[in-house]
Amino acid sequence: MGVQANTRAIEKDIVTDFSERMSYGSYLDLDTLLSAQKPVSRPEHHDELLFIIQHQTTELWLKLVLHETLAARAAFDEDEIGRALKCVARVKHIQKTLTEQWSVLATLTPTEYSEFRQFLGNSSGFQSYQYRAVEFVLGNKNAGMLTVFDADPAAHDLLERLLTEPSLYDAFWQCLSRLGYDVPASALDRDVTTAYTLNEDLLPLIKFVYENHDEHWAVYEAFEEFVDLEENFQLWRFRHMRTVLRTIGMKSGTGGSSGVGFLQKALDLTFFPELLAVRTEIGR
């Protein structure tokens, strides 16, 4: 039988019998993945599927962000700066995808969302344990957040563990110290269970690296990668806030937060404050 116009012939070596072979669908467990979208609105609202898929795909990307960030921390623990930055570079690309993804949800109009929002109950992105895990690994730690996950032992245990472990930034400074850099004791001995805050003791070392970058290129590059990471995270937070404002205005969030007001406060949080503060000092 000849090939019809505007069609592509199936090559003879392409596998078509999957009765005893692993297929694309079975490898990815698509039966599970594609059956995980369960709208709760009654009657089922057309746009709830968008809302569910938006948040499910975000959680999948956050799983990979956490995977790569923990790998970067482990690489710093082994003094492998290059390998750590490879992981950070991948995270940066994921962040761009996550930020652009808000444009899809922004097609949900206020009227459309209001027609099924009531069915969400108190479920909210505020309760994303993976998002909190990423924040904890990057240094924005808040022990008070653990109570949100008291009913989810696995999530609570993960966050409790990450709360007590060094952040990615902490591991980086420990790495530099082992490599012979004069990292101040205040950076090496800090209480890692608390949120990272500006340590002015680090500014002379950071300024030195920036002003002598040819001799300290790996560290110089790490500084800039961290700045990119933080900037991307803030862009994601900003797009989140603006999408919520566009969709529900100044109404409270489903999880009980103040909504846009609460999200705006997150824009003041920082992961690597010295890397921004040093810019005021350079060139003076």
Automatic annotation (TrEMBL):
Heme binds at residue 240. Its EC number is 1.13.11.11. Pathway: Amino-acid degradation; L-tryptophan degradation via kynurenine pathway; L-kynurenine from L-tryptophan: step 1/2. Binds 1 heme group per subunit. Substrate binds at residues 51-55, 113, 117, 254. Keywords: Dioxygenase, Heme, Iron, Metal-binding, Oxidoreductase, Tryptophan catabolism. Its cofactor is heme. Belongs to the tryptophan 2,3-dioxygenase family. This is Tryptophan 2,3-dioxygenase. It comes from Rhodococcus opacus RKJ300 = JCM 13270.
